[in-house]
């Protein structure tokens, strides 16, 4: 008979939950697609793939996520979508 006590059960369960969560986040990052300019939220936020303001780009916005240096990155404003590092929208906030 398998002898799994309560403590081991919780360790295994916690590990499985953490593994599924981290795996899910990674898969969503790879499955994300760029924001389309005709997307209703993008239109409402006046999103553009190329900023017309020299000092305001998605790359230096506080809402952008992911690692610096990537051409397309996740953004808190557009869940499940990627924005261009050179892009801009009306929600731009200077990175601190």
Automatic annotation (TrEMBL):
UniProt-recorded Gene Ontology molecular function terms: 4 iron, 4 sulfur cluster binding; electron transfer activity; metal ion binding
Keyword rRNA-binding: no
Residue ranges of domain High potential iron-sulfur proteins family profile in the record: 29-96
Signal peptide: 1-31
PROSITE patterns in the cross-refs: HIPIP, TAT
Keywords: 4Fe-4S, Electron transport, Iron, Iron-sulfur, Metal-binding, Signal, Transport
Protein's UniProt keywords contain 4Fe-4S: yes
Pfam families: HIPIP
Gene Ontology process terms (BP): aerobic electron transport chain
Family affiliation: Belongs to the high-potential iron-sulfur protein (HiPIP) family.
Subunit description: Homodimer.
Protein purpose: Specific class of high-redox-potential 4Fe-4S ferredoxins. Functions in anaerobic electron transport in most purple and in some other photosynthetic bacteria and in at least one genus (Paracoccus) of halophilic, denitrifying bacteria.
The protein's name in its UniProt record: High-potential iron-sulfur protein
Lineage, uppermost ranks: Bacteria, Pseudomonadati, Pseudomonadota, Gammaproteobacteria, Alteromonadales
